[in-house]
Design a protein that fits this description.
Blueprint (H helix, E strand, L loop, with lengths): L1 H64 L16 H6 L4 E10 L4 H10 L8 E2 L14 E8 L11 E2 L6 H11 L3 E2 L3 E2 L7 E9 L9 E8 H5 L8 E6 L6 E5 L5 E5 L9 E7 L2 E9 L3 H76 L6 H24 L5 E2 L15 E4 L4 E2 L1 H16 L13 E9 L6 E9 L11 H15 L2 E6 L3 E9 H5 L1 H11 L4
Parallel strand pairs: 2-4, 15-17
Antiparallel strand pairs: 1-3, 1-8, 5-7, 6-7, 7-8, 9-10, 9-13, 10-11, 12-13, 14-16, 17-18, 18-20, 19-20
């Protein structure tokens, strides 16, 4: 059977190796083709995104250079730029003029906004809270003009953006760097508006290092990322600088949302870096088609065909060979069964002979000449019953031993309810169980003679313990009948004396002694643990009980 399995395994191994090699080659080829196509598409997309971002920075620089107005407090500063802005055909959401005003100029700026027709010309905080001009000690960056001008954008005019959590730091960076600066992603026009970027460019008059104001353009992220191509091989994600483990993703319709990175989500195919507004932005590309999975599926199909052919060949070969081996195995099993049956019969004969010898000895000793018939009959029945009980217990355990406490059951010995058991729960061998069962019966059968010294039946304690370590451990047993004396206790019979003093100790390879104290009768037995447990006999019995394979 082993040789047949080896041959079939060898055939299967060769077939599996060939199938796996073919699948591996197909997988590598498909994966390489898909990755090349994806890499080219990503490079083209990143180049287009960078080109578009560069055009928007150029627009911001051109717009900042076109300002030639003598004052920055006008509410129509974008009027000369409108034609130039729309000539670029850009997709900005809002263009704005942000003037840098001194505290004493706020009243005039408010009047300018009112004359331009803005519905709320008051100079106020970015969140529409009132400002106290007397408490201000620094210039304010006030939004004075917007494009396009509609019902939503008109409400932005007059806001001071210095303390805006997004635009404020961007204005400071623009002043420090003196070039177009992009903000972090932020909602545009309203708190739940689309995510976008604000590109701020400082306007510096000639001969004055301090900026007079800022031109800003707000762009939605979707068009900047070129994310609305339904036919692309990937979807685009932007690393969210606001969150350490976040990203901004766009769907096929161009809608952009922020989300945390998924721990077990799809892996990025490739990362690209683009520059915009003095910052580097990381673009991640998620393939819409799992190239690895696609290559694996094709490889699985190729490998599956090869394995199927291998399985057919191995199955036919194995079926024919196994039919011959099964017939041979059945013959060997029958021979083994007959041998095991012979061994079991021999073992049974051996045990029956031992039991019959013990019973013969019990009967001979109990019914010896001169014995009282009634008393001898009771003792004979009790001793045979004790032997029957231990044989039943051994049969239940397949002659592998019984628990020592089981030998004290009421059906085995008299007055079991008066016996207190003290000792570990150990399992004794079949040979030791037979001797100990007769020993316990003999001790218990002589403890019922009348009343004790205090007018009650004797109280019995059976105590045993294991001392020392294997293989030199000792089994110590002590039987003590309290409240009894040599005058109140029935004398042991001849058979009992032989059993207590010689048969039981010799059967266990130990020693025994019995004596009276002032208030009790004591019997002590000491024997090696190895004879009480007898692992050799247990192993042999367990081997006979194993099923035939």
């Amino acid at each position: 059977m082993v040789r047949l399995g080896f041959i079939i395994a060898l055939l299967a191994l060769v077939g599996a190796l060939l199938s796996g090699l073919a699948a591996y080659r197909v997988h590598d080829q498909e994966l390489a083709i898909e990755n090349i196509a994806l890499g080219r598409a990503v490079d083209i997309h990143a180049s287009l995104v960078q080109e578009r971002l560069t055009e928007r920075e150029l627009l911001a620089r051109v717009a900042a250079g076109l300002f030639r107005a003598p004052t920055v407090m006008k509410a129509n500063m974008l009027q000369p730029l409108r034609a130039s802005i729309y000539a670029f055909k850009t997709d900005f959401a809002i263009a704005a003029w942000i003037a840098r005003l001194q505290p004493n100029e706020l009243a005039a700026a408010s009047a300018e906004l009112a004359s331009a027709g803005y519905r709320n010309p008051t100079i106020r905080s970015y969140n529409d809270d009132r400002l106290d001009a007397r408490a201000l000690g620094q210039p304010l960056d006030v939004l004075m003009d917007v494009e396009p001008r509609n019902s939503v954008t008109e409400g932005f005019a007059g806001r001071a953006l210095n303390f805006s959590p997004v635009t404020g730091p961007t204005l400071v960076r623009a002043v420090n760097e003196g070039k177009p600066v992009a903000s972090s992603p932020t909602p545009l026009q309203q708190p739940d508006g689309p995510l976008g970027l604000v590109l701020v460019t400082p306007v510096v008059p000639e001969g004055d290092p301090a900026p007079a104001g800022f031109v800003s353009f707000s762009y939605e992220l979707g068009p900047l990322m070129l994310a609305n191509d339904e036919m692309s091989l990937f979807s685009v994600a932007l690393k969210d600088p606001r969150v350490a483990d976040g990203e901004i993703v766009a769907d096929d319709d161009g809608r952009v949302t922020a989300r945390p990175l998924v721990a077990n989500g799809p892996a990025l195919a490739v990362l690209r870096t683009v520059s915009f507004g003095g910052r580097d932005w990381s673009l991640g590309y998620y393939p819409k088609i799992n190239t690895e999975l696609r290559a694996q599926r094709i490889a699985i199909i190729v490998g599956g065909v090869g394995l199927a052919l291998t399985a057919i060949v191995c199955g036919l070969f194995g079926y024919v060979s196994y039919a011959n081996l099964r017939l041979r195995r059945e013959v060997e099993t029958r021979i083994g069964f007959e041998r095991r049956l012979t061994a079991v019969i021999d073992e049974l004969n051996h045990r029956v002979k031992n039991i019959l010898a013990v019973i013969q000895s019990i009967v001979t000793r109990t019914l010896r000449h001169g014995s009282d018939v009634d008393s001898a009959r009771d003792l004979l029945i009790g001793r045979i019953h004790a032997m029957s009980n231990v044989v039943s217990l051994l049969s239940e355990s397949q002659w592998q031993g019984v628990q020592l406490k089981g030998l004290f059951e009421a059906r085995a010995i008299p007055h079991a309810d008066r016996i207190a058991l003290e000792g570990p729960d150990i399992i004794v061998s079949a040979r030791a169980a037979q001797s100990l069962s007769l020993l316990f019966f003999e001790l218990a059968s002589h403890s019922d003679e009348g009343l004790s010294l205090v007018g009650k039946h004797p109280h019995i304690v059976a105590h045993w313990e294991i001392t020392g370590s294997e293989p030199d451990g000792l089994f110590n047993f002590r039987w003590e009948e309290f409240n009894t004396s040599e005058a109140t206790r029935r004398p042991d019979s001849d058979f009992g004396l032989v059993l207590l003093d010689r048969v039981a100790p010799e059967a266990l390879g130990g020693t025994a002694k019995r004596y009276f104290t002032d208030v009790s009768y004591v019997y002590e037995l000491t024997a090696p643990v190895e004879t009480v447990i007898d692992m050799t006999e247990r192993d042999r019995t367990e081997a006979l009980a194993k099923p035939i394979r």
